[in-house]
Design a protein that fits this description.
binds tetradecanoyl-COA; mainly beta; 179 residues; fatty acid metabolism; hydrolase activity; two-stranded parallel ribbon; 33% strand; HotDog_dom_sf
């Protein structure tokens, strides 16, 4: 089942997300065609504008999901001239996190899988896209791509995000468990 249907109210472009607990946003649905989506929070490694070590992703909603334009730089180097695979994963995980603005609920990454099809080069423009492939109750099955300026897909990713309630972020002790 593809999920496009907003489950909560819409969010005015340019305004801040609702704050349920200090810096924990509740992810109101942002209407398709809106301007840049708000960062998850100011210091988020993926998108926080106040995190000098972060990627400071700026993400927009579109008809299919979300997209961003991004250049990795020397802070993200792995092999010389090539972005570190972990940095690429960070950005994709965070991009997936912006799909929550199309769902209007909190969710976290349960599973992330990446295919590195070709090197992601530093100081090179890329377009990142993500969409909800399917929703099954709490489970959001997500897909993403990174494409270069020649429309070649260099990376693909899939993720399973699980919807959680706000207590997830307020609990200080999480017990690991095995499937
Ligand atoms: C300051 C804070 C700001 C807040 C910002 C918010 C987010 C935005 C930030 C974005 C930043 C980027 C994002 C980030 O960085 S998110 C940060 C990284 N992620 C985490 O920290 C999550 C850590 N994990 C957990 O807390 C728990 O494991 C969660 C809560 C996720 C699930 O534990 P829970 O006990 O609740 O669930 P379950 O394990 O019983 O599973 C439930 C169902 O799922 C099925 N299943 C499980 N695995 C798989 C699999 N691999 N393939 C297929 N299916 C799978 C499973 O069979 C079951 O199915 P069913 O039996 O029900 O049918």
């Amino acid at each position: 089942m593809t999920e496009d249907t907003p489950r909560t109210g819409t969010h005015e472009p340019g305004s801040e997300p609702c704050e349920a607990e200090d810096s924990i946003p509740t992810f109101p649905v942002v209407a398709s065609g809106s301007a840049d989506l708000p960062p998850h929070h100011d210091h988020c490694l993926g998108c926080g504008p106040a995190n000098p070590h972060g990627h400071q992703l700026r993400v927009r909603r579109d008809a299919h999901g979300v997209h961003a334009h991004h250049r990795f730089d020397s802070r993200h180097v792995g092999a010389p001239t090539i972005a570190h695979g972990g940095a690429v994963a960070t950005v994709l995980d965070d991009l997936f996190g912006f799909l929550l603005y199309t769902v209007g609920e909190l969710a976290v990454t349960r599973h992330l899988a990446i295919d590195y099809l070709a090197p992601v080069l530093l100081d090179t423009p890329y377009t990142l896209r993500a969409h909800i492939h399917a929703r099954d109750g709490r489970k959001l099955h997500l897909r993403a791509t990174i494409e270069n300026d020649h429309a070649h897909v260099v990376t693909t990713a899939t993720a399973l995000f699980l919807i959680v309630d706000i207590d997830h972020f307020l609990t200080t002790t999480h017990q690991p468990h095995h499937r």
